[in-house]
Amino acid sequence: MNPSYRQSQRDNTNASPRVDSHRTVRPAIDCTGPSPRMRTFSVGLFLPTLAALLCFAVSGPLHAHEEPSLRIQSLSKAIQQSPNDHNLRLRRARLYREEGHWKSARKDVRKALALSGNAPSAAVQLEYGLVWLAGGHPTRAIRWLTRAIRGAPGVPEAWQGRGLAWAKRRRFSKAIGDYSRAIALQPTPDRYIQRGQWQERVGTTDAAIQGYEDGMRRLNEPVSLRLALIRLHTQQKQYGMAIARIQPMEKQHPHVAEWPLRRANILCLAGKNAEAMAAYREGLKDAKDAHRRRPTALADTHRAWAFLGLGDAALARKILTDVLKKHPKLAPARELQTHLKNGFPGCQRP
After folding, report:
1. Consecutive 10-residue runs of the chain (350 residues): their mean pLDDT?
2. CA torsion angle for 123, 129, 134, 139 (degrees, to 10)?
3. Which domains occur in the chain, in start order?
4. The whole model's pTM is what?
């Protein structure tokens, strides 16, 4: 498994309650698309995209070990027994939203709102805002999330949700401001990454770098923020700084192919071709050793990456084709395939 991925999972232990996976973001949360990427191979390769729709736990999950569908069934039975319990409605609404059934979620939140009377709680307003956001209605989401913020300004999920809604409307300055409030209340790697992407998008790259560095200090140097800094240093042709960000990871993970391969990419851009070739060979050796210890799709992808850097595009393509046949959704392999199609710059051979 990619060490960056493992670390990113550890990073998320500091995240807000229930920041969920792709199932949550499916309805509407690719807010702005990926931030502009440099057209060279060293910048985007294998960098995980870390924007996801928050899932605020309005109340504790019922039977958290069960699949969402079973939990929905359990809540439905509980609602039949206590039809006027608005908290049960909110809990089921959240599950519906996470599963992408935003219309069912909206129906439950509306019922919870009606049961709340003239003074709905901030939790109801928050969930209603998140449901509108998931359904692709950012303006309505902003209206309800603003009400939630007024009622409970110390809830970071409300600021985050409204920030995502502002971004859907391409109001990036407001989105950045709301995310800054969410970070002040509860910093997480994902929040730093998303805010930084918007800062890059509006041209305030220095602010993005400062934000990533602040996150590195506050959150024990998560890999996702390190990768963001490597990417920006590379874009700005600060190759020495980019490599300096890689070196600690090579020391911590001395036989992991990803890090010498990243270093090789940057050395190519810096014009240090002989050093780059040596780094590609080092990465290839690590990838082969990893494959011998335990054959994995990621180890094969790293082998393909190394062969591509060393100039053997045919072998890289063959390995990558085999990987994608078995693992068509493996993100690093798909990204490397994109570079193969678009032309992998590589180094000038010494």
Report:
1. 41 37 30 34 36 32 58 77 75 77 78 76 88 92 95 96 97 98 97 98 96 97 96 95 96 94 94 95 96 94 95 93 95 89 62
2. -170
3. 237-350 (1.25.40)
4. 0.74
